[in-house]
Design brief:
Elements (H helix, E strand, L loop, with lengths): L2 H13 L7 H8 L3 H13 L3 E5 L3 E6 L6 H5 L11 E7 L2 H10 L7 E7 L17 E8 L10 H18 L4 E3 L3 E4 L2 E13 L2 E12 L18 H5 L5 H22 L2 H10 L6 E5 L4 E9 L5 E4 L5 E4 L3 E4 L2
Parallel strand pairs: 3-4
Antiparallel strand pairs: 1-2, 4-5, 5-9, 6-7, 7-8, 8-9, 10-11, 10-14, 11-12, 12-13
Helix pairs in contact: 1-3, 2-3, 6-8, 6-9
Bound molecules: biotinyl-5-AMP.
The site of biotinyl-5-AMP (BT5) has 28 residues, from helix 5, strand 5, strand 8 and strand 9.
């Protein structure tokens, strides 16, 4: 079966907004037989599309599946660039790996890699990111901003603000950001962000922002390794969440905020980031590669560096660490 035709057919049904499309018309438009159209309709039904077949009128779309297929996302997407090209794979080791390959092949700014399942999802420092099938959002966004490499770390913070805004908009939940890359609900992690860079002597070639968001898992869906520290939007809200609504909202905020950051700098976004932060103003322990420091997390700088004041009064600039709240 020709997948492109199936996708185009889904797109036509979505665009028809509940109006019947005649089988003959579709057959003519796609240059295939009516039986072939019917086979594509059956394929879409298997994917979870609800399609009503009305005698003498044709096919009507009555419901969309909980899928992250590009057609379903793009039907509701309001962005200009982000997600206008989506590479969708049912299962893959890591969307970051695919995004890196695409970025080297000159893929366009705003391209998104999306999957239903990762078999080797990764966090910072080669840690594992558990990515259960069909329950979360595992995606990588490729950006090609014209900025100096020193401006790269803040993209993680900007992305975090975009994710919390989207979670709020779609679910009404109140997430918090834990510096630098975690999003928490009731103190448990629902999202991790991983920003990676491709750069050369000319500057940044591509930024790859990986976002892992636990959406519809229940406690048993999590690996025992993270069961005590992880949560999902469904566990916190008690409701099944529409993943494509969330993707669409996240991409919209991400486009808006990354554009704002590139054009105006980190100022306004820093204020927004601080308003969601669970870290600032609190006593924390910061574990870094070579040392661990305890103190009060006072602020972040315009460069996204955490300012930690230790008991001896010294202020330390922390570029990357794992943060634990100490009270
Ligand atoms: C992160 O790293 O939090 C970044 C995670 C980024 C994942 C996305 S998914 C799409 C894209 N493709 C990838 O392969 N990766 C990105 P870090 O701060 O190092 O946190 C990793 C730690 O989070 C692990 O050591 C676990 O303790 C915990 N963890 C793993 N899976 C989790 C999950 N599903 N939910 C909550 N916590 C998890």
């Amino acid at each position: 079966m020709n997948i492109t035709v199936t996708r185009k057919l889904a797109q036509r049904l979505i665009e028809a907004q509940g109006v019947a499309l005649s089988g003959q018309q579709l057959a003519d438009d796609f240059g295939i037989s009516r039986t072939a159209v019917w086979k594509h309709i059956k394929e879409l039904e298997e994917q979870g599309y609800q399609i009503i077949s009305v005698k003498k009128k044709g096919y009507i779309l009555a419901g969309l599946p909980d899928t992250l297929e590009p057609t379903a996302i793009q039907a509701i997407l309001k962005t200009k660039r982000l997600g206008r090209s989506i590479h969708y794979i049912e299962s893959c080791p890591s969307t970051q790996i695919i995004a890196h390959q695409l970025a080297q092949e000159n893929t366009s700014d705003g391209t998104v890699v999306m999957t239903e399942e990762q078999t080797a999802g990764r966090g910072r420092m080669a840690r594992r990111w558990h990515s259960a099938a069909n329950k979360g959002i595992w995606m990588s966004v490729i950006l090609r901003p014209d900025v100096v490499p020193q401006k790269a770390p803040q993209f993680t913070l900007v992305a975090a603000v975009a994710v919390v805004r989207a979670i709020e908009q779609v679910t009404g939940l109140k997430p918090e950001i834990k510096w630098p890359n975690d999003i928490l609900l009731n103190g448990k992690k629902c999202t991790g962000i991983l920003t990676e860079l491709q750069s050369d002597a000319d500057g940044i070639q591509a930024l790859i922002i990986g976002i892992g968001l636990n959406v519809n898992q229940v406690a048993d869906d999590f690996d025992p390794e993270v069961q005590n520290i992880a949560t999902s939007l469904k566990m916190e809200s008690g409701k099944e969440i529409d993943r494509k609504e969330l993707v669409s909202s996240m991409l919209q905020f991400l486009e808006q905020y990354t554009d704002l950051y590139i054009e105006e700098g980190f100022g306004i976004l820093k204020l927004l980031w601080e308003s969601y932060s669970s870290t600032i103003g609190h006593p924390v322990r910061a574990r870094m590669a070579k040392e661990t420091l305890e103190g009060i997390a006072e602020s972040i700088t315009d460069e996204g560096v955490l300012q930690l004041r230790t008991a001896d009064g010294k202020l330390h600039g922390i570029y990357s660490a794992d943060i634990e709240m100490t009270s």
